[in-house]
Fold this sequence. Notes:
- The model is unreliable at 1-5 (pLDDT under 50).
- By secondary structure, the protein is mostly helical.
- The termini are far apart.
- The chain is built from eight helices and no strands.
- Its cofactor is Mg(2+).
Amino acid sequence: MTDQHLSKPDIRQANDCPPLPIGASMLDRMVYWLGLGLGSGLPRRAPGTWGTVGGLIVGVPLMSLGFVPFLILTILSCLVGVWICGRTSELMQVHDDPHIVWDEWAGMWITLLPLSYILSYVFPTSENTLSIMMLPMFWGWLPTAFILFRVFDILKPPPIGWADKKVAGGLGVMLDDIIAGVMAAVIWLIIYIIVMMFMSF
């Protein structure tokens, strides 16, 4: 089924999550639940926001692995996500259904990359990384990353809106969130640098 035959629900309204087709294979069941962000995208209202929360919850312990492993996992989530989101759309028979939130997971992880880098290289030992993650400062920067990503993902300024409307298939589902994550990460890093400069005076 092509994207031309799939319609996207109005995300301003509460929507039921399209069910998994009866008789779906075990692989399709796994892909479907990954597409739903392991269930974080199931709520009828604001599934993208809840999916982002799920991505943040999973992303935080992954960050403790260090920047390079987290970067590799983030890149893999984007690459594999094209197939996951495309196949989940086919199973739902809806292009980019709001309950598909694997793209929000990947976009949130991209937004967290600067913080992961800082934890790994400003505080370079694993012991320091784990201890810094327990400090109020760290938990203050997490909501900033979350809010920035959601703002870009919801408002979709150029080129995010272009990617959302013009690119089809699984790549189309993923690309706008990838761009939103990159833009949010850049703004987050600028804010972090400004705050650190101000605190150094």
